[in-house]
Amino acid sequence: MKIREGLKYQLFSGVFLLIIGVFSSCNDGSRMAAEDYVSKATKYYKAGDIDKAIKTYDQALKEYPDDANMHFTLGEIYFLEHKRTYDEAQKKLTLHFLKKGSKTLSRDEIERALIRNGYKVEYAELAQKEFQAAVSIDPSNWIAREHIAGYYFGKNRYEDAIREYQIVISLNPQNVRALTSIGHVYLKKGSYDLAVANLNKALAVEADDEYTYYLLGQAYRKINEGEKYYAILTKLKNMHSVWYEHLRLHTFGEVEID
What we know:
The protein is mainly α.
């Protein structure tokens, strides 16, 4: 199981309510039906009835297929539910193995077991579909683009991820997540100099991000910048960071952790 998957698929707390606010500001008669749909879906969502919230948005989008905000909000629901059901299924599976004893499973067997325990694996694709629809209507939606980029990264579609992250950064230059993520993509792709450049840009915005230092340490090691590598290793140690031990293992090439 990969560590720090959350960097590829970031949760954007508060966005759902923000989008509701956007709809609430639409007072003209031509948008009342859309506003009613959103109000109804929001009530279902807050009550925890996710299926009805999704169904309501599906109905709304049949009438308002060009509404970028609706596509984006539905994408957020799918995305958050994908993450929630994965976490819950993983917890159930872990507790099961702790009780019954460990067992070695293949990646496919693990996924099937997670699905049996409620993991909505298909929601990742459905979220991607809605985010793609949103940016096709509103290309400036950098949050949707960041979701898209993270999805591509998770699928090892590095060039597609880089393209989307570059657009995100052009729209929001101070976005530490995007700067760190594109650096991570370059690192995985083997473009180490570009990884170093973008990770340093991220640290220029947020100087104490431990995970960015961890990735930068890997990049320096790859290009044989030993002194810079050990400087970062020392910094993480002094920060009492959980990433210190992971980076230290790279010294001997023992492990590679995402």
